[in-house]
Every structure is written in structure tokens, then in C-alpha cells.
Description:
By secondary structure, the protein is mostly helical. The chain contains six helices and no strands. It has helices spanning about 1-5, 20, 25-45, 55-75, 75-85, 85-120. Helix 3 (about 25-45) runs antiparallel to helix 4.
Amino acid sequence: WNRILLWFQQPSKYPDTVFNRYxxxxxxxLYTILQLFxxxxxxxxxxxxxxxxxxxxxxxxxxxxxxxxxxxxxxxWELCLxxxxxxxxxxxxxRKRQDMRQxxxxxxxxxMENDDEDGPGPDEKIPVEEA
Length: 131
């Protein structure tokens, strides 16, 4: 329900959830649309008396839809954030933060190395060779 409400909110007003923080808004909306499509199919089959006998089959077909159809539209980490267990999500977030820290420390170290390659700083004396 909360993801449906995102359609009617400004992106700056979105609640601070894990998937809002790390995923593109278009991917969140696409996932919601696909879920509503599956729900609509199951609801339609349930309420039409002529075909309501296949309701259990339609419910069962949602599983292969999740396993084989959704990975064509979303990467594994996006599916984990959208419908994973809380433990999976916490593990993914901790790995993401660790990767961000490592890349930040790597970029700081490489920028310090580049500063040394640029030449002496303003307070450093330039060595002069005498002939």
C-alpha cells in the first residue's frame, strides 16, 4: 500500500526506507505495477465463476512469476530490497556500507598519491642541482 502512495508524493517526501534510499524510483514503481498486475489476475480468476476453478493454479503461478519473470526486470539486489527477509536486507545494507567505506578510503588514498605526483606543495622547497 505504501508503494502505491509513492505515485502521489513528491520524491523529496518519500519515506526513508531501504529501497527508497538505494533504488531508482522508476524501478520501485515498475515492481509495484507488476505486483498489482499479478494481484489483478488472481482477483479476476477468483471472482469469475466460469474460471474460478483455476484459482489455486493462478495462485501457484505467482511463484514462477517471481522466480523467473521478475529477474528479467530487476537485479538480484533490487529484488532482495523489495521483498527479501529483514536479515537479508540488513546483510545487504551492511555490505553496501562496507563497500562504500572501502571505495571512499581508496579514493582518498589515490588522491593523496596524485597530490604527491603533482609536484611540491607551496611550502616545500624545490631542490636545485648545482653544476
